[in-house]
């Protein structure tokens, strides 16, 4: 009897053992499904890149960058749009960074936990999903009309910063939340005030995450056409903005304008313009990756 | 507690009660902690020993559901008084945590964190503080050539001694230790215990431990907590040789807990 107890005959798992081959098939199948999903996205990206590169690469030229827009496709450049986009970023980047990080710090470190703050937190995440054209209408109403800024660089930059604010808040909150409680407690236990703990421990530790989120959000803003058009950006501007109140155009607007024209030459320089904007995005994302790997703290 | 020598008190706790929402975690705790001695707090998990030690520097307040009443006097000062600054309390009362928790900074930066937040800026003074604190925490020899390196490069035991050095840098009066060796191997544990023996000449130490041998080895007085109350508090020899209460005897002889 004792001997029988110690032998390996476990009826309960007999059936399961027979199912093993089925489990192995599923094991492989799921890997296949995930690979398929990945391959599809990569394929689409490659198709897009080939499509743009074959059409546009021949038309990439220095003229495209240093010339203003023109009725003749050969003379047309995107200097005004390039400058406009840079001006927009100069307005939007610091503003959305300060407001976004401030909001995130408040929500993570100061806000009491109750139903109202939970509702607020959920809604900020929802805000990140609001269509950009809605932010354009908001910008048109408040900055352009109400504050009388017109279709200026300032109004455009403010609108874009509102657009990316929720994304920065969500990314910053995640980064701040990832700072171990242990480490914060160590700071408080030495008599640090909340401000000292936030400024010396929480923000430095979460900065890589915050900056990565901010840069990714801004690179989304660079590509936004709708809100810029809605607040009244021009499609033909023959000068770079001289101050915050100048009229402007931006790269996606310029590209949108060119693709809408019937002449094939304009289609081609639009493709070249897309290459330039893609390079800018690629550059910004590289900075984000660099910051992440270089400054990431490990715990 | 029948202490014949009348050492000045570091802490005088009277009728302390603490609730986590509806859970009455500490019940009518009264305890005198003499200065320049090691007071050990033992008891099974969930008995309130960690909660108690965190009340001594008001770290429990960080949890919004905690409510306390009663009195804790730190050297005659009521720490729950409205005009008593929690930052002042925590400069006088350092804390070492269960898991080593150095900052993600260099060894040097870790030690000067406390002095810097309290306004010391002079480079030479800071250098002196670093050397003195690391020496006191018996980790100077291992770290003097790598002060600028990240503290995460140290072993767990070294990190814990760095945390002790960081705590010593603000020249506290009292050091609270919440199971400081439970995450460490036996050799690192031994080093920390030796260090505690050394430190009690200058500091008052309150240590929570779930290791009864450790309490017996290093402490002068021991309090046994069970279900949020103090069952027995006496000189360590007495607690371990002839405990007055049956629960204490059962616990230290390993019959439960």
From TrEMBL, chain A:
It is found in: Cell membrane. It holds the Pfam family BPD_transp_1. GO terms for biological process: phosphate ion transmembrane transport. InterPro entries: MetI-like, MetI-like_sf, Phosphate_PstA. GO terms for molecular function: phosphate transmembrane transporter activity. Residues 82-287 form the ABC transmembrane type-1 domain. PANTHER family: PHOSPHATE TRANSPORT SYSTEM PERMEASE PROTEIN PSTA (PTHR43470:SF5), PHOSPHATE TRANSPORT SYSTEM PERMEASE PROTEIN PSTA-RELATED (PTHR43470). This is Phosphate transport system permease protein PstA. It comes from Marinococcus luteus.
């Amino acid at each position: 009897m004792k001997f029988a107890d110690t032998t390996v005959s476990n009826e309960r798992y007999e059936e399961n053992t027979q199912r093993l081959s089925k489990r192995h098939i599923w094991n492989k199948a799921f890997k296949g499904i995930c690979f398929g999903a990945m391959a599809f996205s990569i394929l689409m990206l490659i198709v897009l890149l080939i499509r743009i590169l074959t059409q546009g690469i021949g038309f990439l030229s220095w003229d495209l960058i240093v010339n203003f827009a023109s009725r003749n496709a050969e003379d047309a450049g995107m200097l005004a749009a390039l400058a406009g986009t840079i001006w927009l970023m100069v307005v939007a980047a610091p503003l959305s960074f300060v407001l976004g990080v401030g909001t995130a710090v408040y929500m993570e470190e100061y806000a009491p936990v109750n139903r109202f703050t939970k509702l607020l937190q959920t809604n900020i995440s929802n805000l990140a999903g609001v269509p950009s054209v809605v932010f354009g209408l908001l910008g048109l109403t408040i900055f352009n009309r109400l504050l009388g800024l017109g279709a200026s660089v300032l109004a455009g930059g403010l609108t874009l910063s509102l657009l990316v604010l929720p994304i920065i808040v969500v990314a910053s909150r995640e980064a701040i939340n990832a700072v171990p409680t242990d480490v914060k407690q160590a700071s408080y236990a030495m008599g640090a005030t909340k401000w000292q703990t936030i400024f010396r421990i929480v923000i430095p530790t979460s900065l890589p995450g915050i900056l990565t989120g901010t840069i990714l959000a801004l690179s989304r803003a660079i590509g936004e056409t709708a809100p810029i058009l809605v607040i009244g950006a021009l499609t033909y501007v023959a000068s770079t903005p001289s101050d915050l109140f100048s009229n402007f155009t931006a790269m996606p607007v310029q590209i949108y304008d060119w693709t809408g024209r019937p002449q094939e030459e304009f289609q081609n320089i639009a493709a070249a313009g897309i290459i330039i904007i893609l390079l800018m995005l690629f550059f910004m994302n590289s900075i984000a990756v660099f910051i992440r790997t270089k400054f990431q703290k490990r715990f | 507690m029948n202490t014949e020598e009348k050492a000045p008190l570091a802490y005088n706790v009277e009728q302390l009660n603490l609730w986590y929402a509806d859970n009455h975690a500490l019940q009518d705790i009264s305890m005198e902690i003499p200065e320049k001695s090691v007071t050990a707090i033992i008891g099974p998990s969930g008995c309130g020993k960690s909660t108690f030690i965190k009340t001594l520097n008001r770290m429990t307040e960080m949890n919004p559901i905690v409510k306390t009443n009663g009195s804790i006097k730190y050297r005659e000062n009521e720490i729950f008084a409205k005009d008593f600054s929690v930052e002042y309390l925590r400069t006088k009362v350092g804390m070492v945590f269960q898991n080593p928790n150095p900052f993600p900074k260099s060894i040097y930066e870790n030690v000067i964190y406390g002095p810097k937040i309290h306004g010391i800026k002079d480079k030479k003074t800071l250098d002196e503080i670093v050397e003195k604190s690391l020496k006191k925490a018996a980790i100077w020899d291992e770290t003097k050539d790598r002060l600028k390196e990240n503290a995460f490069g140290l072993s767990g035991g070294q990190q814990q001694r760095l945390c002790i050095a960081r705590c010593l840098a603000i020249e506290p009066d009292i050091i609270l230790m919440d199971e400081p060796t439970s995450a460490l191997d036996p050799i690192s544990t031994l080093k920390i215990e030796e260090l505690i023996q050394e430190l009690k000449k200058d500091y008052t130490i309150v240590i929570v431990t779930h290791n009864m041998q450790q309490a017996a080895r290093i402490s002068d007085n021991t309090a046994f907590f069970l279900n949020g109350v103090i069952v027995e508090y006496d000189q360590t020899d007495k607690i371990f040789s002839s405990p007055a209460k049956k629960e204490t005897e059962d616990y230290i002889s390993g019959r439960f807990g």
